[in-house]
């Protein structure tokens, strides 16, 4: 009887629609057939004099990723006329539509929760087609969301002709389905709303409400009130529990001690002078400035975390205090040093731009030409009025017909004085010499002969010493260990001009704990306490007594948990107190016992799926998974891991902000849920990217004072991350500014068995140097920053003579079964475990694509060891034909280029200044981008130094040459 009544109600609704006063209403079911669209949109609506058009749709949506419910488009060129997009992650609806002027328009509606797995009714009302104000109105579940004063061209008149208009609807899946899609013409909003069981509210002209909602709403109000009362009770109970826990004191039941109170003795406080005797014993004064702790134990605080140094200047944390190095090239200013958090917060290093053009030599530009000062540099321009020539031939007076001024100076080197120079061989020699010393933009090359002139994106130039040389670029000296520090002091003031304190072992951070001029890496007694490093339980802190209260690997003098065994010394919040003994590991003010993200600050404690794990650290924030299992190490929990990745960029479709366009970085500048790669207005300033002179910085005025095509708002700092483009590793990504591997994920590739141990990673030089100390199972240290196109370089050095196994680096890491690895073996060797198959390693450099069916374990382990292809595990893409292994205690520099959009890979290795291996162009599309890291397998004491990465999507010239050759063949 109920079903029959509902059917009758639906029938009556349709009858009412078709029996309106003007009898103009027409309903088209687009799920059944969309054949009506071309006729209607190519002039039919105008011919019928229709003023109002409605689109009604009903759908279930579970996916949180950006999803297109339907689109009206031109199938000939796949261009859009109108599409309806939803982003469940940020509860946003976006309408993209072709405007009457031929440009694309966008209307965004916020706070529209649709991706919850429940059915939702959506009504779009387009009015003003023939008269009145053109507008679009969005209704969701009988509620008006917003009205936009604009109208898509699709509902006026589209181009005529066959195959010009088509409809595409969201594919149906188990969780996502469009169950209704209708087009309604020539009706009132009141009548059309009844198709979705909606009526106008009393006294309102636009708000709608459901006929069937009155009873359920009252019930819902009652349930919410009960829930609120229960939540209030739980909050009070939790608060009482927290108070009890915080006020607890140890109770040993012992009688009051009558022993004489302890007085100040050696070592009772952090410093002897801090001990204060009292009637009941003693107390320790607060830790000195620059330290944190209880007075008994004080740990150095890291002032550098507050960024006191000028952007791009290295901050060196000392104990106590900090020091900022010299200002970058092109700036002047003093070095800064200080002690304590207050000082670091209130004092900032000041570096002022140097105006090179004010110098006597015109900034190095040709005399009588313009010199343009830029932020941190300069660039040379045209000849001044009254002069002709260029930066290569020089600028001479327009009225002077002589050729005497053919060089950058007066031409005195020609030997002919004021002669015409037409027959002077020496003048030609000068021009040839000048041509060989020009930068790519034609400016005079001011760099050292062992440096490269780099033309920056703003046209200015900078100098970079070649591989095997170090300095500031304008002066370069020999660099034996290739760690960016010269073997001898150079005649310049930059940090990279000082002599290397470890000439034969790379140490790009130049750490020197005892300040004896010998770097820690090559100092047998780095803390000068008379105990050699290999026997010292605090090799960087003096501790002659070698006291070790908890018996771990760290003496009390350098142990961040003196009474708790914690050899890893992990300290999440960098407060000097190790996690093992810190009751608030992440420093967010919540005790661990009450914190649902113990190692990630989250004062809000949000937990959408109520699994006890806060959203800030939940690998499946919308699906309960309290155990947080992540078998494939891709940072997505197994419970919500679909491994469906349409574009192959390492992000599954449900979490990819551009599911069909490669964008491993997932950069979303305006945080609208749509990645920049598929967003036509990255900064959401209303100006499309192709016309925007500051694509990543909102600037509606488009001010450009010098008319160079770059807006004033982003000149010199394109992404406005406060790091100038010249030293920014990713000038078009505000989230990545400097190379930093301090935060990394450890991945063990053979977790079974106990034949060997896991790698032990040590990170130095603010994340630009990594050391692995153990003879270990295969493992990775992977940074968290993902890249599309990238250049990755570093110095590789095995600092031992006792082993001969694998070391290398990885790129394109997507999970523990999918990544590229460049690995180098010293000698030929058969792996000592012949199960599951015999694996033979050959000496030399190898480039492999890992696509493992099994993931970490014995199959992947042996496949990595083996030189060659292993079915369903590893493919060998390239091997150095020299079959030469790495040498003990010799530094090598690698340079990798990866352009996943076309599959381009090229890797080069240098020994000193010499190129020793080059893969040439390798094409592979197994991984379309991913993260970077380092790799080891059974090799100890590996150093990866002077690490550098840089975002780069520019396709190298040799790719086109390679492609042309292979197409022709």
UniProtKB/TrEMBL annotation:
Gene3D superfamilies: 1.20.5.10, 2.60.120.200, Laminin (2.10.25.10), TSP type-3 repeat (4.10.1080.10)
Organism: Astyanax mexicanus
Keyword annotations from UniProtKB, A to Z: Calcium, Cell adhesion, Coiled coil, Disulfide bond, EGF-like domain, Glycoprotein, Repeat, Signal
Bias (Gly residues): 400-426
Record-level Gene Ontology MF annotations: calcium ion binding
Domain EGF-like: 300-337, 353-396, 435-477
Protein name in the entry: Thrombospondin-4-B
UniProt record similarity statement: Belongs to the thrombospondin family.
InterPro entries associated with the record: ConA-like_dom_sf, EGF, EGF-like_Ca-bd_dom, EGF_Ca-bd_CS, Growth_fac_rcpt_cys_sf, NOTCH1_EGF-like, Thrombospondin_3-like_rpt, Thrombospondin_3_rpt
Any one of the GO CC terms: extracellular region
Entry-linked Pfam families: COMP (PF11598), EGF_CA (PF07645), TSP_3 (PF02412), TSP_C (PF05735)
Domain of life: Eukaryota
Gene Ontology BP terms: cell adhesion
Coiled-coil region list: 217-244
């Amino acid at each position: 009887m109920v079903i029959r009544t509902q059917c009758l109600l639906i029938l009556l609704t349709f009858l009412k629609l078709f029996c309106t006063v003007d009898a103009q209403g027409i309903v088209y079911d687009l799920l059944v057939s969309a054949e009506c669209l071309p006729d209607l949109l190519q002039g039919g609506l105008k011919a019928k004099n229709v003023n109002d058009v409605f689109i009604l749709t009903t759908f279930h949506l579970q996916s949180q990723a950006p999803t297109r419910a339907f689109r009206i488009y031109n199938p000939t060129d796949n261009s859009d006329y109108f599409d309806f997009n939803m982003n469940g992650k940020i509860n946003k609806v976006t309408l993209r539509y072709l405007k009457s002027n031929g440009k694309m328009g966008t209307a965004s509606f916020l706070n529209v929760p649709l991706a919850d797995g429940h059915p939702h009714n959506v009504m779009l009302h387009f009015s003003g087609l023939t008269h009145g104000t053109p507008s679009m109105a969005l209704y969701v579940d009988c509620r008006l969301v917003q009205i936009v004063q604009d109208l898509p061209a699709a509902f006026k008149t589209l181009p005529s002709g066959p195959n010009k208009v088509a409809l595409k609807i969201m594919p149906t899946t188990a969780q996502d389905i469009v169950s209704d899609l209708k087009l309604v013409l020539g009706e009132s909003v009141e009548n059309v709303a009844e198709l979705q069981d909606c009526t106008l509210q009393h006294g309102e002209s636009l708000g709608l409400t459901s006929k069937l909602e009155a009873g359920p709403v009252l019930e819902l109000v009652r349930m919410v009130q009960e829930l609120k009362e229960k939540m209030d009770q739980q909050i009070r109970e939790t608060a009482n529990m927290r108070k009890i826990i915080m006020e607890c004191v140890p109770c040993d039941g012992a009688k009051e001690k009558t022993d004489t109170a302890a007085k100040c003795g050696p070592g009772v406080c952090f410093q002897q002078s801090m001990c204060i005797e009292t009637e009941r014993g003693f107390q320790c004064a607060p830790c000195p400035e620059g330290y944190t702790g209880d007075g008994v134990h004080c740990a150095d605080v890291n002032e550098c975390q507050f960024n006191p140094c000028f952007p791009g200047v290295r901050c060196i944390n000392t104990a106590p205090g900090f020091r900022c190095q010299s200002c970058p090239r092109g700036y002047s200013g003093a070095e800064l040093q200080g002690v304590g958090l207050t000082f670091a917060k209130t004092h900032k290093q000041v570096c002022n731009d140097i105006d090179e053009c004010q110098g006597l030599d015109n900034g190095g530009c040709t005399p009588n030409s313009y010199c343009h000062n830029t932020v941190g540099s300069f660039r040379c321009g045209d000849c001044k009025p009254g002069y002709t020539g260029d930066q290569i031939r020089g600028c001479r007076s327009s009225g002077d017909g002589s050729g005497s001024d053919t060089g950058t100076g007066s031409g005195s080197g020609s030997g002919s004085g004021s002669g015409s120079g037409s027959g002077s061989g020496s003048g030609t020699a000068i021009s040839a010499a000048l041509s060989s010393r020009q930068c790519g933009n034609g400016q005079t090359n001011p760099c050292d002969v062992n440096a490269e002139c780099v033309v920056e994106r703003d046209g200015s130039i900078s100098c970079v010493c070649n591989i095997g040389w170090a300095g500031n670029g304008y002066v370069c000296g020999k660099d034996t260990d290739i760690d960016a520090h010269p073997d001898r002091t150079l005649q310049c003031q930059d940090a990279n001009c000082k002599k290397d304190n470890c000439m034969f072992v790379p140490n790009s951070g130049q750490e020197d704990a005892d300040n004896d001029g010998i770097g820690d890496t090559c100092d047998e007694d780095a803390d000068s306490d008379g105990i050699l490093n290999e026997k010292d339980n605090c090799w960087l802190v003096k501790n002659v007594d070698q006291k070790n209260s908890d018996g771990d690997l760290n003496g009390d003098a350098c142990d961040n948990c003196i009474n708790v065994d914690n050899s890893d010394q992990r300290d999440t919040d960098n407060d000097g107190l190790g996690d093992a003994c810190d009751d608030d590991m992440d420093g967010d003010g919540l005790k661990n016992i009450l914190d649902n993200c113990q190692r990630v600050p989250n004062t809000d404690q949000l937990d959408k799926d109520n699994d006890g794990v806060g959203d800030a650290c939940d690998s499946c924030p919308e699906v309960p998974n309290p155990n947080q299992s992540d078998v494939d190490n891709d940072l997505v929990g197994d419970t919500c891991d679909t491994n469906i990745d349409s574009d192959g960029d390492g992000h599954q479709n449900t979490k990819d902000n551009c599911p069909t366009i490669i964008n491993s970085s997932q950069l979303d500048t305006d945080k609208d849920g749509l990645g920049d790669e598929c967003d036509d207005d990255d900064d959401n300033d209303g100006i499309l990217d192709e016309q925007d002179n500051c694509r990543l910085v909102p600037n509606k005025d488009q001010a450009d004072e010098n008319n160079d095509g770059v807006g004033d708002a982003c000149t010199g700092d394109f992404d406005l991350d406060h790091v100038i483009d010249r030293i920014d590793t990713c000038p078009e990504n505000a989230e990545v500014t400097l190379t930093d591997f301090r935060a990394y994920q450890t991945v063990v590739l053979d977790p079974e068995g106990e034949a060997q141990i896991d790698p032990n990673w040590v990170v130095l030089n603010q994340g630009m140097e990594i050391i692995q100390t153990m003879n270990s199972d295969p493992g990775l240290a992977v940074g968290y920053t993902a890249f599309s196109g990238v250049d990755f370089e570093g110095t590789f050095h095995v600092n031992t003579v006792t082993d001969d196994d694998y070391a290398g680096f990885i790129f394109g890491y997507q999970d523990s079964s999918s990544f590229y690895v460049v690995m180098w073996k010293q000698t030929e060797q058969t792996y000592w475990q012949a199960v599951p198959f015999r694996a033979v390693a050959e000496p030399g450099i190898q480039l492999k694509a890992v696509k493992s069916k099994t993931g970490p374990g014995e199959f992947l382990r042996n496949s990595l060891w083996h030189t060659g292809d292993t079915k369903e595990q590893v493919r060998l893409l390239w091997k150095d034909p020299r079959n030469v292994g790495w040498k003990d205690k010799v530094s090598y520099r690698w340079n990798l280029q990866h352009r996943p959009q076309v599959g381009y890979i090229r890797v080069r290795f240098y020994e000193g200044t010499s190129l020793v291996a080059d893969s040439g162009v390798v094409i592979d599309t197994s991984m379309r981008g991913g993260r970077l890291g380092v790799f080891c397998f059974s090799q100890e004491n590996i150093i990866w130094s002077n690490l550098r990465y840089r975002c780069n999507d520019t396709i190298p010239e040799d790719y086109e040459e390679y492609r042309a050759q292979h197409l022709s063949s």
